[in-house]
Amino acid sequence: MLKVENISVRLGKFELRDVSFEADPGGYFVLLGMSGAGKSVVLQVVGGLIRPDGGRVILGGRDITHQKIQKRGVGLVFQDSTLFPHMSVYGNIAYPLVSAGMVSKEVLRRVGQLAEITRVGHLLKRSPRNLSGGEQQRVALARALAPEPELLLLDEPLSSLDVQLRSDLRALLREINGSGQTIIHVTHDYEEAAMLAGRIGVIENGTVVQTGTPAEVFLNPGSEFVARFVGIRNIFCGALGGDTGTLRNFIAGGIRFTLLSDEPAGEGFVVVRAEDIVISVSKPSTSAVNNFLGMVKSVQPARIGTEVMVDIGMELGALVSEESVASLRLVPEKKVWVSLKASAIKYIRR
Amino acid sequence: MRLVFVLLGGLVLLFIIAPLAGMFIATSPAEFFETAADREVARSIGLTLWTSMLATIIFGIAAIPFAWVLARKNFPLKKLVSAIIDVPVVIPHSAAGIAILGFVSRDTVVGRLGESVGLNFVGSAPGIILAMAFVSIPFLVNAARDGFAAVPERLEKAALVLGASPARVFFTVSLPLAWRSIVSGMIMMWARGMSEFGAVVIVAYHPMITPVLIYERFGAFGLAYARPVAVVFICVCLAFFVLLRMLSSKYDNAES
To answer: What residues of chain B, 184 to 223, have a C-beta less than 8 Å from chain A?
Structure first.
């Protein structure tokens, strides 16, 4: 469907190097990276707003690298509204249809249809200036979908919205994708990526460092950057000791972890997923080799389950079920045991 | 401190108002109406109004797309081009008149070209239009350029992505959003052209635009005869100016 091959761009000091990725037809591809990583530039190259210095963009078999913007067959939604302030909502959604020379009766029908999908039917006569952020993004989506683009590009479409609107709009995006629309979505929010993406590409310093399904990227972060970036709570810096083939020691902040790794000894990071941490009220007698006595710092609902922060000399975040919180009576200040298996600790060499 | 500022401000204001007020006070209502009814004065005011308006419209058509280019595009020697735009503002207007006369008189290519289609630039309305446009066009170009620069470029890009041709983007997005500045630039250009004396008097002493008529009456008959014409002309200019401002602000309100 969309193939981006070795795209390079130089914009002043910023450089995009050899960016390559592929999005399947009907897929939802999220390009994840911090601000300044170059993800918006990639999107603008695909959309034709920036000319690449090298590489190719292939959409549905056509090489569109040097195609005119208006002939590319892509839709683009930006973070902030780019609705035309001097036109009504109707005028905005109709704009690409009128540009394409559609007759007014047809335009009316199509705008109505789009307004229904994006649920902005009641806003058609309004001026975009008087709409909320969420409404503006819905209208922008309707407008971008109007010319039936082969590919929909979204540049941080949820960033300027509050939590509730975000979840509404996410549902809408899923729906649109579900109807077969291929989407490339750029964001710095890993949760957004996890919730929407079929595939994720992580971009760092102008280059794609890892691509894969959300599970692949989040559970096997390919680098310290990815691990830190995707927001895994438990990532610690320290030194790995011992020889390969044995249980290894990793000392971080005075705490000794025991883990498995075939990396040579040296400086690095360890990552522990919050869901791999087991909490108990008495000293556990399990196969887990890492057992620490600590004190509960906070108990907070997470997206799924409850996040319990435990101080063992450093803070560890554990994800447990609400049931466990209730049965163990986990409250701040309570003394608990934290245990994790050696195999649950992932070492990333620096 | 505050007192000094108020005092200085008051002095500047007085400096502008006092001579004008004096002129109005010195003109009796009888003189005013008599002058307003003077065929020569009326004809010259009419001429001044339509030539300056035509200058604004004709040159505006060329200046507006040019202003967009200045606002959006980078090209070699752009700074020089921008500086050239401002030249008419800084050179003496009599010198501008000499330059235009040299450019359009009968023995030049432009003059002969004009003559072949029945346009004579020297001592005629077309010459007046040229002289007015020359000295007033920077006001429109600069205002329109600022207006286009204030239109968010991403709106233009969004329109392109939506499949609009560059021309359609210009007419449906850039132009309507910069319209406010353009209108205000046109009003400035028109007002500046209308009040031009130096450049016009050299290219066309006759037919007489009002600033030239005022000068002629002053030279031939003295202050007392020139003053009522000046007062009538100022009144007409101000009336148009206020009317246009009101119309354009009404348009703004309707838009927002």
So the answer is: none
Residue ranges of E strands in chain A: 2-11, 14-23, 28-32, 54-59, 62-63, 74-77, 151-155, 182-187, 199-204, 207-212, 234-240, 247-252, 255-260, 266-272, 278-280, 290-301, 306-311, 315-320, 335-340, 345-349
Residue type, B178: A
Domain assignments of chain A as residue spans, ordered by start: 2-229, 234-350
**Alpha carbon of B188: minimum distance to chain A alpha carbons (Å):** 24
Strand partners, A236: A270
Q: Which CATH number do you get for residue B90?
A: 1.10.3720.10
Q: How far is the C-alpha of B131 from the C-alpha of B193, rounded, in Å?
A: 8
For A234-350, which CATH class? mainly beta
φ/ψ region of A148 (left if φ > 0, alpha if ψ in -120 to 50, else beta) reads left
Any idea which architecture A2-229 has in CATH?
3-Layer(aba) Sandwich (3.40)
* Measured distance CA(A1)–CA(A11) in Å, rounded: 27
Give me the pLDDT at residue A112, please.
Answer: 95
**Measured between CB atoms, which of A48, A129, A143 is closest to B162?**
A143
Closest by Cα among A266, A246, A268, A275 to A342: A246
Could you tell me the pLDDT band of residue A52, with boundaries at 50, 70 and 90?
Answer: very high
The ipTM assigned to this model is 0.81
Which chain A residue has its CA at the smallest distance from B175's CA? A86
Q: Which helix (H) or strand (E) holds A52?
A: none
In total, how many domains does chain B have? Answer: 1
List, for residues A297-335, the tens digit of each pLDDT value. Answer: 988 877 678 889 899 988 888 888 988 889 999 999 999
User: CA A93, CA A114: separation in Å to the nearest integer?
Assistant: 8
- Chain B 94-133, residues with CB within 8 Å of chain A CB atoms: none
Residue B4 lies in a domain: no
Q: What is the rounded CA–CA span in Å between residue A181 and residue A347?
A: 39
Beta bridge partners of B130: none
Q: What is the pLDDT of residues A170-190, one digit of tens each?
A: 889 999 999 999 999 999 887
Q: Which domain holds residue B235?
A: 39-255
Instruction: Give strand pairing partners of B73.
Output: none
Average pLDDT rounded to a whole number, residues A273-288:
86
